[in-house]
Each structure stands twice: as structure tokens, then as C-alpha cells.
Amino acid sequence: MWISRKKSTARKKTAAPEKKTGQRRSISENKAPFSSSPQELLQHLSVQKKKPFPESISPMLASLASKPFNDPDWLYEIKWDGYRAITFLQNGKVEIVSRNNKSFHETYYPINEGFKQWKVNAVLDGEIIVINAKGKADFAALQEWRSEADGELRYYLFDLLWLEGMDMTALPLTERREVLKEIIPLNDEIILYSPDFDTTGTTFFKQAQKTGLEGILAKKKDSIYEPGKRTRNWLKIKTERTLEAIIAGYTLNEGSNKLFSSLLLGIYENGELQYIGPVGTGFNKKTQEELMLAFKPLRSKRCPFKEIPEYNKPSRFRPNPPKASVTWLKPALVAEVSYQTVAPGGILRHPSFKALRTDKKASEAKTEHAVKPEKLYKKTKQKEKDKTAKVVRKTLLNPTDATQVRIINGSSFTFNNLHKVFWPVEGYTKRDMLNYYYQVAPYILPYLKNRPQSLNRFPNGIKGKSFYQKDLTAHAPEWMKLFPYTTSEGEHKNFMVPEDERALLFMANAGAIEMNPWNSTIQKPDHPDWCLIDLDPSSKNSFEQVIQTAQVTKQVLDELKVPGYPKSSGSTGIHIYIPLNAKYTYDECQLFGKLIATRVHEILPDFTSIERLTKNRKGKLYIDYLQNRPKATLAAPYSLRPKPGAPVSMPLFWEEVKKGLTITDWHIGNAIARIRSEGDIFKPVLGKGIDMKKVLKGLA
């Protein structure tokens, strides 16, 4: 698989001298992650009052979630693209039924035969799928499956509801799954355990998108099983927008040689069938023939909607639609369709037919409102997304006037030369830069506030002459905070110290494309808030080598149990920050950085170096820990860089630091959308610092 499984769920097939049908793992082999082992749990349950074998159980259903999320109190599984199935095993008899109680007993006979080898009485929940030649679940192939020649059948079990007279539904999910894992035969190739994965929800979702999965499921670890209930303790997050709708009729265009031109779809809203539009794509000839057979007994002279909808309405792309006749159907069949968005009035935009869902009842085709998952886990250990993510700012400066006056934090600003092009190849102007910093201000300011700045000014853009300016004594407005310093010649001068967006926009208006703060604040100037590892490649290094070095740095930090947070430099390298919370001096910080850099270099000696002098590095990638010194500056998170492409120094998830990452992935044109979507993922850098003494003791 493309994500590592949890140790508690990994299953390895081991060779045995003699294959035994129905061989199972000994319950005492592994310890479960909860307080007792599965064996002890079974012993505990065995003394409970026996519950009769259930005649039927409606499956527990997941609610739709608007987006993936990360929370340690939830586990994450694959959302299989198949038929939900409940299996009843009693005294050697097997019954497999769909969620609407249709029998799968004979249809998927290999599964039925597989269960005959089981020696337990149980009720199980899972999903039946067919694997196609590409190794992916294929719902269309599942519908057409008649024998093993039609594809590889799989039944993934994910829950245990009843076992040997014991009602399991009131137990926490993790405990039910641990016992389930113990009763599944190790050597079965069709009936399998559906694992949860050792990753975050957002990472798992991204991988599901890349792999072409239907989606993921998030389940609260302590959730009980609630038969027939659509619960918010289980959430489904889809990789594409789909819904189940009722087929209320079909149309046929005049002169068409097809069996039908489009299906007319409806969905129940407050008990009444509402029209949600036609779908005219996603069918081949065979699909149309099969659908027409299903339509035949359902044809009706009566429209199932309260009012006859405008099913042949002209649109922007079809101003003169062909004449079409309509045949109404009794509202009994459910179609799964994908779509892009929903237009005003509830009409689907760009829908496409996916499949006929014979396993779903028409009464289940209702409007499904997506849950905002953050409402469900605010009280867990998982930190909420930074509040600044909710700040939505629009542009400060209009696109036409070359000079504009704005009031910022009560002070009047004159922004001039706004038409001046700062990035000639891309055409980005000074106006674009100022608008970017205005929008990103809530995110970047925590990394600038109370930190002296060295301005790197490009008054004529990245191709013009540039210069550094430290002293702002003669140019500082009344409201600006200053921090004194003395030159080697004994001159008294002042750094500027940002406090709010006035200072940020002042710097940008002066042509400072990038923001370069100290690692420490004026409150504790000798104690940095973070330790830096700056991966600085030479012209002989590839960016893949930078990525590899970052990955090894993560490996070293993990071994030390030290958190590290990466960001693209926006130039040629990657920066890795370790939170210190101003608890240590620069000397202590630098020595700690040297320890990490040395270990990384030992692992990658062929193309890395920790030599301070460039001539001694011999063209190797420099693992720079000497940035951890007083008054040293580095481009801030979310800062623009004076480089082609207008790149941004963007905080990254570690999962993104892999082959394929490029410096220009995040730039002035797309950075704001990314930041609004993810929030400030770099925020932990400003949080609780590491316990350096504890880390060093662990190495002793």
C-alpha cells in the first residue's frame, strides 16, 4: 500500500508446512492497544448475559463531511466503492444481505463458500468489491459480476456486531475491530480485514485522491455501533462530488438514434420529490439497454414531481435544444451521479451517470448536508485550525490608479509606482506585491512582530539594483517602533520593529520584496524562538538531493523525538524549524543545530557538507546550522522572494516534502488560496519549545 499500516492492524501471511483451511491467529498472539488483550476481552464478555442471535440488523451509516481533518481520537479507513453487506453466521449457515436486506447469498457465491469454513457464530459488517485489472475497485464490474472470470471478488470486513451470544455493538469501535481481526482466517484471499492507516486524515485523503479511491472514512475510536443510524461518529469524505438520486423519467430527443437522451433526476426534500435536473452523459449502449429493461415495469403516465419540471430548458451552451419527448417513471430506481456544483434552485451542474444503485432504497435518496468536521472535534486533543484561517481579505489597491492613498491602522499611506513591474517574465507588479502582503498579513505578522528587520530593497523589481537597509532612524514615521544598535565605528542606529500591518506595508512599499526577521524578539534578544536547519544547495546539487536531505533530517529529528517544521525557502533550499520558545541562548541553539547537522551529514556524506567556508564544501549541499546566531535573518514564513516566478517561502506538511516538490509550487498567484485552505500550519513553531536537556540525556 501507499501508506504504512498501524502495527496493530498489519497482517503478515506466514508460510506453514501444511496449509489448514480456516487457520486463525491465536487470540493470545498479540496485545491490543486497549487495556486488555482480545482474549481477556472475550473472557470478560463470556460472563455477560447472552444475547439472542439477531434476525436482522440495519447497518450504521456515515454522515458526509465537507473536508478531511486530523484528530488522534479518530481512525481512518478506505471508503470502498462497492456494496455494503451484513453477514450472519449461525451454526454453519451463512446469510449475506445488502443494506436494504436483499440477499447476496447466491450472487457472490465465493464469499458464501469462504464463510462456510468459519467455525464461529457472528454478525459482521463490511463491503463487497471487485478488483479490476488495474488493481482498483470497479463498481461497474461488481454490478456485472457473475463468476470469477468477471474479476477478483473481495469482501472487506470492518466491524463485528455480535459474537457467540455477545452483543458487541455497545463496545468501543477499537475493541470491536481488535476482536474482529482475531477471528478472520489468515490464509483467506477473498474475505479480508479492512485496515485503518497510520497517518493523518488530510494526508490519507490526498493519497486517496492520487490513487483514484472513492474517498476515505473517519471513525471515532470510542464510537459504539448504532444500527440503522446515520451518525456523526462516522464520517465519509469523498474525493469527488457524488450523490444518489431517483430516476423519475427519461427523455428522447427528436431524431436521436439512442434509446434515451437523458435521465430526469429527483431527490427527496422534506418528504417531497424535488427536481434536480437531467443527466445526459455517462452511458454507453450496453448501459442504456440495461436501464431500459429496468424502466419497463416502472413506466407511468403520471409525473412524480408536484409540478412538471422544465426538462428541456435552453441554457448558455444549448440555446436551442432539440425537441424532446418524456417518459415518466415510478420513483423506485436510484442512480449514482457525479457533478461539479449545484446551481441556484438545486439543479446539478455537469452531472454524469455513474451507476444504478440496486442496493439503495428510493426513500434513502435525500438531500445530504455536509458536516463541518471541526464542529465535532473541538473538545479533543487535536488543535483547532488557526483562527486566522477564517480571515478572508480582498485586495487593498485597485487595478487602475498608479498612486493611491489608504488608511492603514489609523495612519495615512501613499502607495506609488503601482504599475511598476517587479517580476518582468510573469508581469507581476508592485501593486500585486502590496495586495499579496495585505492579504497575507494575519498569517505572516506573528513571525515578524517584535523582531528587528533588515530590509532587502528592490525599488525597481528583481532585475534592478538592490540594497540592504538596516538603519531606519531617518526614515521612520512617528508610529514605528525602533530598536537601537551600535556599529563597529560606534555609530548609534536603529532597526525597525514591526508591530502591525502598517509596518509590513511600509516595508513592501519601500520595495522590500522579502521579509527578513531575527530569530529572536526584542524582549529576549539573546534567546531565539526557534533553531534553524537551512539546507543550502550549491549549483551542482539537484533539488531532489535537497528533498532527500530534508527527509533524512526528519528521520534524525524523529529519532530524537524532536518536532521539526519544514518550509520551502522560496529560493533553492528548504528550511527546517525546531521550536525553542526562547528557553535557550544562541550558543546553546547553535550547538544543538550542529548536533543535528552532523548526524544528517554522516548519513549523506556523498553530497552534503557542514563546512562553513564555501571553498571547503567542494560543491556539496551545505547543512547550515550557523544561521543560529544573534542578528542573523532568514526569509519569514509566507514571505515573497525576489526570484523568477515570484515564489513564496511556504510552510509545508512533511508529506509534501518528497520527489516532485519544486520551489515554484507556491507563488504570489496561488499562495493565498493555499493559506486560506490550510490555515497557519507553521504555528507550532511559536508554541511550546523542546526540552533540550531531556533530548541530550537521551543521547548520553
From TrEMBL:
Start and end residues of each ATP-dependent DNA ligase family profile domain:
146-248
The alphabetical list of record keywords is: ATP-binding, DNA damage, DNA recombination, DNA repair, DNA-binding, DNA-directed DNA polymerase, Exonuclease, Hydrolase, Ligase, Manganese, Metal-binding, Multifunctional enzyme, Nuclease, Nucleotide-binding, Nucleotidyltransferase, Transferase
Q: Which reaction does it catalyse?
A: ATP + (deoxyribonucleotide)n-3'-hydroxyl + 5'-phospho-(deoxyribonucleotide)m = (deoxyribonucleotide)n+m + AMP + diphosphate
Q: Tell me the Pfam families matching this sequence.
A: DNA_ligase_A_C (PF04679), DNA_ligase_A_M (PF01068), LigD_Prim-Pol (PF21686)
Enzyme Commission designation = 6.5.1.1
Instruction: Please name the top-level EC class of this enzyme.
Output: ligase
- Which intervals of the chain are annotated as region Disordered? 1-39
Q: Which domain of life is it from?
A: Bacteria
> Which CDD domains has this protein been placed in?
Adenylation_DNA_ligase_LigD_LigC, LigD_Pol_like_2, OBF_DNA_ligase_LigD
Q: Report biased composition (Basic residues) as residue ranges.
A: 1-14
Keyword set includes ATP-binding: yes
Which PANTHER family would you find in this protein's record? BIFUNCTIONAL NON-HOMOLOGOUS END JOINING PROTEIN LIGD (PTHR42705:SF2)
**Name the UniProt record assigns to this protein:** DNA ligase (ATP)
Q: What is the lineage of its organism?
A: Bacteria, Pseudomonadati, Bacteroidota, Chitinophagia, Chitinophagales
